[in-house]
Amino acid sequence: MSSSQISVAVLGATGSVGQRFISLLDQHPWFKVVALAASDRSIGQPYAQACRWVLNDPMPEYARDMVVVPATPDSIHAKIVFSALPADLAKDLEPQFAQAGFAVCSNASSYRRADDVPLLLPEVNADHIQLVKRQRQQRGWSGCITTNPNCTSTGLTVALKALDDSFGVRKVFAVSMQALSGAGYPGVPSLDIHDNVIPNIGGEEDKVEWEPRKMLGKLDGNKVELADIGFSAHTNRVAVTDGHTVCVSVELSRPADPEAAARAMRDYHAPASARELPSTPRPVIEVRGEADRPQPRLDRLTGKGMTTVVGRIRRDPLLTLKFVVLSHNTIRGAAGGSIYNAELLVKENLL
Length: 351
Ligand SMILES: NC(=O)c1ccc[n+]([C@@H]2O[C@H](COP(=O)([O-])OP(=O)(O)OC[C@H]3O[C@@H](n4cnc5c(N)ncnc54)[C@H](OP(=O)(O)O)[C@@H]3O)[C@@H](O)[C@H]2O)c1
Prior knowledge:
Layout: E1 6-11, H1 16-24, E2 31-38, H2 47-50, H3 61-64, E3 69-70, E4 80-83, H4 87-99, E5 103-106, H5 122-125, H6 131-139, E6 144-147, H7 151-167, E7 169-178, H8 190-193, H9 204-215, E8 218-220, E9 223-225, E10 230-237, E11 244-252, H10 258-266, E12 285-287, H11 296-299, E13 308-315, E14 321-327, H12 331-347
Parallel strand pairs: 1-2, 1-4, 2-3, 4-5, 5-6, 7-10, 12-13
Antiparallel strand pairs: 7-11, 8-9, 11-14, 13-14
Helix pairs in contact: 1-12, 7-9
The structure holds NADP nicotinamide-adenine-dinucleotide phosphate.
NADP nicotinamide-adenine-dinucleotide phosphate (NAP) is lined by residues 12-18, 38-39, 41-42, 71, 84-87, 89, 107-108, 150-151, 181-182, 184-185, 329-330, 333-334.
């Protein structure tokens, strides 16, 4: 490890999101993976043996022989831990890491709603990272917890941010078609999803109706004022490997035609502090003009899986406009998002 690199660990390293971390952290310019943690099932085994690798890219060489360790602060020596733990476990373990001085960048839902925990999409609300200071003061931690949103809220919120800045967003009606990898590994049984759509994902609609309001909210001193936007969401599981597609209708405060909305999204840039980081999406939003795009298989790897892809922007007969959003759920919606958050922590000298 070079002296300028920052040591990081992955908790839940063998799962659907954990594998994305292993892959995205290979050759990362700032971060060096020094520990991989998982459950009793995997502890003590070399990663290559413990993990049933399901990504298309081969398992990176650096990880193969690393021996999996317990997900406890005393088993790990690193500055940052990326958490891809199940939420019930994250609830207990993440504060232990933060108290022990680690910066926890979490994918789990456990602390997304806490007043003093930033729920971050750096290209949307990089300024909310300042909540970490209040968190440290209030909880007496030398470390911290930052979170990224649920994977369906991710692309949706990026697209809404561009519209909100230009026209104001009042109401959102959203219907998701969510990929299988969003359910973890092994996830949904094949006989349940083959030839099928499952019109319910436990707890998901509530997250999609709440999390964008925190991220689009204003940081007022030490607190985020939730955005005053009405949301209604339907969430569905479909037989797609990766990439969540969301059909969205919006009511805007100021008039906007489809061309103006497309321009606002194409011209949208991340806030200055989040613009030149290694994981910054380039572009933040890609707007496609074809009548049948975005599609998960064709478009999910746009901008290395970090770009939000929007298409079919058109007038909505009930509200103002409607469109389709696609975002890679385990890259922008999970591991890539956490890594982007960690880069922002470094940039803001908050490690
Ligand atoms: N998948 C997505 O697209 C997505 C997107 C956003 C957020 N998230 C969130 O990210 C987290 C991980 O999701 P996932 O889809 O990667 O789940 P997953 O595939 O089920 O993986 C769970 C991971 O947690 C480990 N684990 C389970 N019990 C443990 C224990 N007692 N101690 C230590 N490690 C333990 C597992 O290790 P073993 O293999 O050893 O059992 C595995 O590495 C969840 O909170 C999820 O809600 C997921």
